[in-house]
Design brief:
Elements: E1 12-17, H1 26-39, E2 44-49, H2 51-54, H3 61-77, E3 86-89, H4 95-104, H5 109-113, H6 116-123, H7 130-133, H8 135-144, E4 150-153, H9 158-174, E5 184-187, H10 221-229, H11 247-260, H12 264-270, H13 275-303, H14 305-334
Helix pairs in contact: 3-13, 4-8, 4-14, 8-9, 10-13, 11-13
The chain binds adenosine monophosphate and tryptophan (TRP).
């Protein structure tokens, strides 16, 4: 872990993940977390566990608390350096909820109802609460609080970034120019999209994939190897990248290449004529090799919750400093009476 202080001049970026499962999976790792780790070199990065957002889906309180610690531990185990980047828990910086309220008051009801993620959830029969409706306004608050210039997220979050930009511009027009920084979208296009091992045409997803389709970063070695050996492929025997007709093998090639750094054409050449068994065994070995140090670091962090809590408290302290300055500007701009000091 490097002890380099974050450069005060580096532009700020921010991203978050919800603590909605017992472990992140390989898709979260390759699709998001690895990018976060790389971006720390260039930016003053703020990475948080979106526990307030997770409340939109009723969860047992002890489970939510556990998942929040696990998610923070996994950010760090994956390479986010808590001494360089602020790693924190959304609810520890109470300004998020406060700015979220201001964002709610800038949003038209119909505008919130038109967000696709809300419509999808309602269409799927979720018993939606008002928190789910105003989820994007809280997300806008998360982002605008830190004057973030970029927000590295997956394609599924594009609409939420667009409304964040709209709300920032609306705030600045209605109240005071340049109070909030309008963020640039930073959609992680180049990053790997990892598919479900049992259904390689569907995204690997903590909420919809079956256990056998998911590689959890907490899975023991034998389980990882078994899941990869049973991954759905096709009836040919050729290791070739073709996501259209060979989605399963292509997914395994993407996983191998992302973790080993070996270009896909080189893998195709190396496994020519060898059959799927040999290939799958090597993919399993590559995943196990990558996940083992991750799991060790995660266990160390979870075995010492006091130290983990200290690291995220440090992150919250740093985040709060920025958040308080933003809220002072916002309160003054909207006309909230400053409380007198007694
Ligand atoms: P989620 O688990 O859907 O809340 O996603 C958390 C982060 O991981 C987001 O930035 C997603 O874009 C990313 N992510 C989730 N599933 C995958 C996947 N199968 N492949 C690549 N990235 C993913
Ligand atoms: N909505 C994001 C997701 O589900 C999580 C999130 C909440 C977030 N607030 C954020 C991501 C702010 C980036 C910035 O993945």
């Amino acid at each position: 872990m490097s002890a380099t202080a974050p450069s005060a001049r580096a532009p700020r970026i921010l991203s978050g993940m919800q603590p909605t499962s017992d472990s992140l999976h390989l898709g979260n790792y390759l699709g998001a977390l690895l990018n976060w780790v790389q971006l720390q070199d260039e930016f003053d990065a703020y990475y948080f566990v979106a526990d307030l957002h997770a409340l939109t889906v009723p969860t047992d309180p002890a489970v939510l608390r556990h998942r929040t610690r696990v998610t923070a531990a996994q950010f760090i185990a994956g390479g986010v350096d808590p001494l360089r980047s602020a790693v924190f828990c959304q609810s520890h910086v109470t300004e998020h909820a406060e700015l979220g309220w201001v964002m709610n008051c800038l949003t038209a009801e119909g505008e919130a109802r038109r967000m696709t993620q809300f419509k999808d959830k309602v269409a799927k029969g979720h018993n939606a609460n008002v928190g789910l409706l105003t989820y994007p306004m809280l997300m806008a608050a998360d982002i605008l609080m830190y004057d973030a210039v970029y927000v590295p997220v997956g394609e599924d979050q594009r609409q939420h970034l667009e409304i964040t930009r709209d709300l920032a511009e609306r705030f600045n027009t209605r109240y005071a120019a340049d109070t909030l920084v309008v963020p640039q979208p930073y959609i992680l296009k180049g990053s790997a999209k990892i598919m479900d091992l049992t259904d390689p045409n569907a995204k690997m997803s903590g909420s919809t994939s079956p256990d056998k389709g998911l590689i959890l970063l907490s899975d023991p070695d034998a389980r990882i190897a078994k899941k990869i050996r049973s991954a759905v492929t096709d009836t040919e025997a050729e290791v070739r990248f073709d996501p259209e007709t060979k989605a399963g093998i292509s997914n395994l090639l993407v996983i191998h290449s992302a973790l080993s750094g070996t270009p896909i054409p080189e893998l195709e050449a190396r496994f020519a004529g060898q059959g799927y068994g040999v290939f799958k065994n090597e993919v399993a070995a590559v995943v196990v090799e990558a996940v083992t140090p991750f799991r060790t670091r995660m266990s160390e962090l979870l075995d010492d919750p006091a130290e983990l809590d200290r690291l995220i408290a440090m992150g919250a302290d740093r985040a709060r400093e920025v958040a308080q300055a933003t809220m002072a500007r916002v309160r003054a701009a909207v006309g909230l009476l400053p409380a007198a000091r007694l």
